[in-house]
Amino acid sequence: xxxxxxxxxxxxxxxxxxxxxxxxxxxxxxxxxxxxxxxxxxxxxxxxxxxxxxxxxxxxxxxxxxxxxxxxxxxxxxxxxxxxxxxxxxxxxxxxxxxxxxxxxxxxxxxxxxxxxxxxxxxxxxxxxxxxxxxxxxxxxxxxxxxxxxxxxxxxxxxxxxxxxxxxxxxxxxxxxxxxxxxxxxxxxxxxxxxxxxxxxxxxxxxxxxxxxxxxxxxxxxxxxxxxxxxxxxxxxxxxxxxxxxxxxxxxxxxxxxxxxxxxxxxxxxxxxxxxxxxxxxxxxxxxxxxxxxxxxxxxxxxx
Length: 304
Known about the structure:
The two termini are 44 Å apart. This protein has 304 residues and is of the alpha+beta class. It contains eight helices and twelve strands. The longest helix has 22 residues, at 157-178. The strands form three sheets. Strands 1, 4, 5, 6, 9, 10, 11 and 12 form an eight-stranded mixed β-sheet that branches.
């Protein structure tokens, strides 16, 4: 059914949407663009007419006349469009840095509470991070000045894979250590069988898995599953990999390919940031959350 009433669409926009954030764009800019697209689409639909103005005129000692006039103070030419950006609440569930791209989950209106619940539940996220061996930059990213160069021809794929395996094992050991459980004990097995162990501190990055998915020296790409990560940490991780391989490295790209159960297949591209596509995407996100109830609240305290 084709709905032309803006008020009905307005009432239905109260959940989360999944969009693809481009690189070199802030989350705040994405938020403003989405709000503008929603308000523009609503204002192009059938909006409510101006409220009538009731006027009571005449001599109070005699019979008064009641007339209904158009209320010019409520006319769009005076107060502006019916739907304006400052009236619309929107917040993100996962924050992506300026140089990062990929899956970004946004809550609209009452969906901001849903976005907060997903964020506080600390679901795992997947990234593909690209790096280049042989050069180190000031901030660890490709857009800064090169401050150091080194050789990289001695590095082979098995060197990188062995290092990533050691890093993954180190993080797994640290997770059980923070829980006060010996990794070789039965308690550790029972705890791990419940699912990923999330750290109590939301500021401590934890890697659950890390592997190399492309190695074309000097360029390489790793894929990792993690929680509590941030852009600077991922850039420093590439730098650390270069140092431990007896070379240097800097980050050339960061892409979030999954946030909880939301993947790149669910994300709206920039050309699809229109009201119609946003409504359709919101319905798809609602179906995903209905299929996975643990996305909002964990069923067991063992995962805390």
